[in-house]
C-alpha cells in the first residue's frame, strides 16, 4: 500500500520577514502609475513639490515622482531649522543632483522662532510641532507659487504609530508611500537606486539633535513592522503572544496604534443628518 508523506507547515518564526517582502519592480510600476493618475488625471497638475529632508522617505518619493512625471516637473524644497543636521541638507542635495530636479532652500528658523519667542517655555514636542507645521505652510505656499501639487512622504509604520504632526506631515493630498511599512520603503528605495548612505542611516525626524525614530519608539522598525502586519490582519493580542512575539513589544505596538486612531481621521463632526461629511458621506475607514 502506497503511503503519502506527511507535510506540515514549518514552525512560525516571529523574526521571519517573508510577509513583508515586496515585488519591487512591480511596486515601482504601480506607484508610478498611481502618481500619474492622482497628480495628472484626477487633479490636473503637471508638476509636484516634495519636501526633501535628506531621509529615505522623501528621497524615495522624489525618485518616484521624477520617474512618473519627469525630473523637470519635480521641485524639491529643503526646509532646515537652525538645529537641523548639516548632513540632512547634504543628503537632500545629493538626491536632487542625482535626479536632476530643481531644488531650493527655505530656512524656517526665523518663522518658527518668531512664534516660539512668545512661548519661551514651550516643550520639545511643541517646538517640533511648530517646525513641522511651518514646513507645511512653506510647502503649500511654494506649491501655489510653482503651480505644483504637494506630495506627501509619510510611511505606513509612522502613520500607524501616530508619529507625525497632525495637519502638517499628513497634509499633502497625495502620498505614494502611505501603505508601505518602513522596511518595505527601504526595500523599494534600494531597488530604485536611492543612495545607500541615505537608505542605511538611522531614520530621524531631525527635530532634536541626535534624535532617531527608533529611540523615540522604543522598538526597531523591523520588530514593529512584523507585529503591525499581523495586528492589521486582525490577530488579537493573545494570538500574537502565542505566536512568540515578545509581550512588551506587542503591548507597545498595539498601544501606539490604539492611542492614535484619531490622528488618521478628519476632524470629528457633530452629526445632525444622515449625510454628515466623513461620517456617512465620504466615510473614511481606519483599519
Search tags:
mainly alpha; 4 strands; 4-stranded parallel β-sheet; single chain; 287 residues; 5% strand
**What integer value in Å does the Rg equal?**
21 Å
What fraction strand? 5-15%
The portion of residues assigned to helices is 40-55%
Mean pLDDT level: 93
User: What's the N-to-C terminus distance?
Assistant: 51 Å
Low-confidence stretches: none
The total of helices stands at 12
Overall 3D form: globular
**Major pleated sheet:** 4 strands, parallel
Structural class: mainly alpha
Number of extended strands: 4
Query: What is the H/E order?
Result: HEHEHEHHEHHHHHHH
**Sheet with most strands: strand arrangement:** 3-2-1-4
Describe this structure in words.
This protein is mostly helical and about 290 residues long. About 45% of the residues lie in helices and about 5% in strands. The protein contains twelve helices and four strands; from the N terminus they run H-E-H-E-H-E-H-H-E-H-H-H-H-H-H-H. The protein has a four-stranded parallel sheet with strand order 3-2-1-4, sandwiched between helices. Helix 2 links the parallel strand 1 and strand 2 (about 75-80). Helix 1 (about 25-40) crosses helix 7 (about 180-190), helix 2 (about 55-70) crosses helix 7 (about 180-190) and helix 4 crosses helix 5 (about 125-145). The protein is globular, with a radius of gyration of 21 Å. The N and C termini lie far apart (about 50 Å).
Amino acid at each position: 500500500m502506497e503511503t503519502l508523506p506527511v507535510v506540515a507547515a514549518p514552525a512560525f518564526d516571529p523574526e521571519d520577514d517573508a510577509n513583508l517582502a515586496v515585488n519591487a519592480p512591480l511596486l515601482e510600476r504601480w506607484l508610478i502609475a498611481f502618481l500619474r493618475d492622482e497628480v495628472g488625471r484626477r487633479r490636473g497638475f503637471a508638476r509636484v513639490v516634495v519636501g526633501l529632508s535628506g531621509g529615505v522617505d522623501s528621497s524615495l518619493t522624489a525618485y518616484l515622482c521624477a520617474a512618473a512625471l519627469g525630473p523637470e516637473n519635480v521641485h524639491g524644497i529643503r526646509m532646515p531649522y537652525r538645529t537641523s543636521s548639516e548632513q540632512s541638507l547634504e543628503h537632500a542635495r545629493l538626491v536632487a543632483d542625482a535626479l536632476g530636479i530643481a531644488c531650493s532652500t527655505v530656512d524656517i528658523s526665523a518663522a518658527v522662532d518668531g512664534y516660539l519667542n512668545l512661548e519661551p517655555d514651550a516643550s520639545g514636542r511643541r517646538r517640533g510641532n511648530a517646525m513641522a507645521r511651518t514646513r507645511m505652510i512653506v510647502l503649500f505656499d511654494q506649491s501655489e507659487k510653482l503651480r505644483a501639487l504637494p506630495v506627501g512622504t509619510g510611511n505606513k509604520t509612522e502613520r500607524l504609530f501616530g508619529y507625525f504632526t497632525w495637519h502638517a506631515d499628513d497634509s499633502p493630498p497625495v502620498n505614494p508611500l502611505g501603505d508601505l511599512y518602513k522596511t518595505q520603503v527601504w526595500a523599494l528605495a534600494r531597488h530604485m537606486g536611492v543612495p545607500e548612505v541615505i537608505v542605511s542611516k538611522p531614520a530621524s525626524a531631525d527635530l532634536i539633535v541626535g534624535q532617531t525614530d527608533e529611540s523615540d519608539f522604543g522598538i526597531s522598525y523591523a520588530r514593529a513592522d512584523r507585529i503591525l502586519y499581523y495586528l492589521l490582519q486582525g490577530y488579537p493580542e493573545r494570538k500574537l503572544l502565542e505566536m512568540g512575539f515578545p509581550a512588551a513589544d506587542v503591548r507597545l505596538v498595539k498601544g501606539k496604534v490604539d492611542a492614535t486612531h484619531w490622528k488618521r481621521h478628519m476632524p470629528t463632526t457633530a452629526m445632525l443628518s444622515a449625510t454628515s461629511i466623513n461620517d456617512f458621506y465620504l466615510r473614511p475607514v481606519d483599519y
